[in-house]
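INTERNAL AUDIT FORM
Audit reference: QA-55
Scope: verify that the stored structure record matches its stored sequence.
Auditor: D.O.
Record contents follow.
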Amino acid sequence: MKLKLLSLLLSAGLLTGCASDGNVSNKRYLRAVSVGRDTVTLSFFPDGSDNVTVCADSPAQARRSAELGGGRKIFTGYTELVILDGCENPEVLEFMLHEWKVSPSCMIACPEGSGDELLTGRSAEELEGAVKLAQEQELVGRCDIVTVLGALLTGDRRAEVPELSEHGFSGTIVIE
């Protein structure tokens, strides 16, 4: 009897899940990010109306600054779009995949113009939709972070990604 009670208590302790990690309302959920040479713009769920642009040398520094400024932790695991604005090096994507742990299906794109202005001028949902539609119409190939990073790290070290403008999909661009 004591053994059953002890196993029941241990099981109950294991079923607490992420309760110790805090309430979901105490976090901000990153939907899209534009990474530039010296600025990072973060767009959050649900609608991206509270975009944050941070002057930072790295995505890690930008995340810390945004967390301190917003007073809440930022969860990056649901990130759907990364816009590379002049910093198309594989290290940024490796950092996003391994440190921020963005979804392997997270799409990579480049802006026509400024990534910060693009992400603040258009909703992340519209930009994601433009990329998905371009893929469905076979105007651009796979541009998820794993495919793009794989192409940049192997073979000819080049990847083709969608180029986005204020009007949506505007073509493709090769990054090296």
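Auditor finding: record pair retrieved intact. Residues 88 and 173 are 11 Å apart (CA to CA).
Action required: none
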